[in-house]
Specification:
Number of helices of chain B: 14
Shape of chain B: globular
Largest interface: A-B, 63 and 60 residues
Strand content of chain B: 15-25%
Distance between the termini of chain A: 41 Å
Order of helices and strands of chain A: HHHHHHHEE
Structural class of chain B: alpha/beta
Oligomer: heterodimer
Shape of chain A: globular
Number of strands of chain B: 22
Distance between the termini of chain B: 24 Å
Helix content of chain A: 55-70%
Largest sheet of chain A: 2 strands, parallel
Largest sheet of chain B: 8 strands, mixed
Amino acid sequence: MLNERAVTEPGFWMRLAMAGIAATSEATFPENDLGAPDWKSTAMVERTLEYFDELPPRQRRLLVLLFVFTELAAGLLSWRLSRFSRLPARHRTWAIHCFRRSELMLLRVLGDALKATATMMYMSHPLAIEWIGEYRVCDRPLDPVKIAVRPAALAAPSEGRS
Amino acid sequence: MRHGFDDVAAGFDIEADVVVVGSGPGGAVAAANLARAGMKVVVVEAGPEVRPEDMLRDTPRFLARYFWEGGLRIILGTAPSPTMHARCLGGGSVVNSAIMLPLPAWVRQEWRAESGVAHFDGPELDAAYARVFARCRVAPTPTTVWGRRNRLVRDAVQGVLGEKGGGLPRAVHDCEGSSDCLTGCASGRKQSMDRVYLPAAEADGAEVFTFCQVERVLVRGKRAVGVEGQVVEVPGWQKRGRFRVHAEHVVMAAGTMHTPVILQKSGINPRGLVGATLFCHIGGGLVGIMDEVVDPWVGATQGWGAISQEIRGLKYEGLWASPAALMVRWGDVGRRFVERLDEVKRAAVIACVYRGDVHGTVKASRSGDPDMRLWIPEHNVAPVMRGMKRAADALLTLGARYVHTGIVSVVDEMRTPSDTESMLSPRVKAKHLAMTMNHTFGSCRMTADDRGPVDPNGKLRGLEGLYVCDASVFPSPSAVNPQATIMALSDITSRKLGGLSLGEAPS
């Protein structure tokens, strides 16, 4: 369940972090005409907050700090005098792309951290799993995340299928 | 006997002959041997037991619960890189690919020459390997569970490059080829420590305590006399009761990061050598997007591999993991990445693992977590990139549409051999390498003289009753996956301590 404290009474820093998470999520997995799930349909903000609640306290604080920093400073680092969440989504996407390709280690670490967190949340959602066509050759009946099962796939590998 | 959270929450104070800190490959083997030798053994493990119902394909949640620092641990230094260390009963053996490769002969010779420890290249190590391999039912990954992905890696590395390899020997019996090793083997086929050595230890009377995070070794005079620490609930990370285990012998098997940190926090650091060294394998991964559908989620996680004959110290291996973990550095962001999601089913991934001569340190940070630094010499970049270029060219030869590495200053989507030339550019520096540093060793090196803090019997110098049984004792990188060697060296140390034969044939 979503952490109630985080939703009903988020403090100043948590509100900044949530804005940073939403801004990053939209930039990395935007709405699209490809039919692929996006940041909203995969509930990335809510699930990221749930993920934070699973983390050890120090790592939780570090990730909150990451997104607070992103919200406050990533705009400036991409040559815009604005909070990150108030920039157009395309500019935010470009900014994260540039951070990840930067020669400056700190920018590269920032870009990689944003991409990694967003990708982990997106790719673990059942809609994304279904979209990429992921399945397994055996079931995990006790796992709440249901993934398609094709037991025969191993016996008949898809050699040559295009 | 196995104690869960309810048993330990309030804390405890007990006595034993020997306390083993950590239940991974080193600790579990030591516990089984010492219990078999008739000692009263207590194992304390910081994390919980991962039962089949806990093995979630919800990767972020699984990492947060069962890995140190929630799976977000980073090694700083030349190229800040993630490093994943399990925090659960059975340690890394629960969440790794169970690859069991003995040290190559040249590494054994080098270890012996460097450290002066005879058994690194002696019959004792052969016998120890034989024992652990027999007990873990180690066998080459059968072709029936390779799947298309492992076959493609074989076709590229062996077929195109001529590097002879095969089904990787793994501690998996009757593998299902589910590609789920990272989040635990729910079907119980993987012969992890919680299923093999710890039950053996328990059958001989050992007691295993989970959720118990050791903070300090207790010392009286010049002798270790036990450990103390904190019960930590997972999930939730609430601190509960405190515990103490008084014992005549302490076996540290908390891993390359935590063994030195616990010793440092206990004021045990002979000549400043504990944590003064740290080594790891470096390298990188290549994703080849093929014309055909590969269905990379079918087949053993790491089913095929080859030790390079062309580049000494380099190993090629097939790889797959949950896309939520594997794709964190893969591709671009935004629409360009979303467009590429349709190609994941065409992916073949080759990991290039290089021994190198990376050096670093581990220190206890103020928070109590390890603070790790690793420095990659620039001359290590050329062999890594040459190995990766060869693998990229091989994938292109097999018809890959493009190959991606995630390395800054390399062409993002390499489609021709001239694109792959960018991997050999002098612009590619050590700081650009994109990798996960999971193989870490050597923070409490075993040496015959006093250059390392651990002597050939596995005993910490300058303190009676304290032994080290994990990858901390490696004198330098192993060049292959470390689990088999951790277990074999722990087998030797614990047999010596327990007075068991070192030459005993596997049963």
